[in-house]
Design goal:
The protein has about 70 residues and is α/β, with parallel strands linked by helices. It contains three helices and three strands. The protein has a three-stranded parallel beta sheet, with helices on both faces.
Length: about 70
């Protein structure tokens, strides 16, 4: 079900992961192959960082609220 959902998504957020544990690590790759914009938010770089559409290095508890405010102005 997860693979079906990410391959049908326009945007996929990947938050707080090592990006190496399978099968979950394959989800962002499947999303990218299907044309989704993949945004990684993580405290440190991962193997996904260089291939994600965008990678933001930082604490999720700080980055995600800032992203929310930037996008939705709240």
């Amino acid at each position: 079900d997860a693979f079906r959902r990410v391959t049908g998504a326009e945007v996929v957020l990947v938050v707080g992961t090592s990006a190496v544990v399978q099968p979950a690590a394959s989800l962002p790759l499947a999303a990218l192959r299907a044309g989704a914009y993949v945004l990684e938010v993580n405290a440190e770089p991962t193997p996904l960082s260089e291939i994600a559409s965008e990678s933001v290095i930082g604490k999720a508890g700080e980055v995600l609220p800032a992203l929310w405010r930037e996008v939705w102005g709240e």
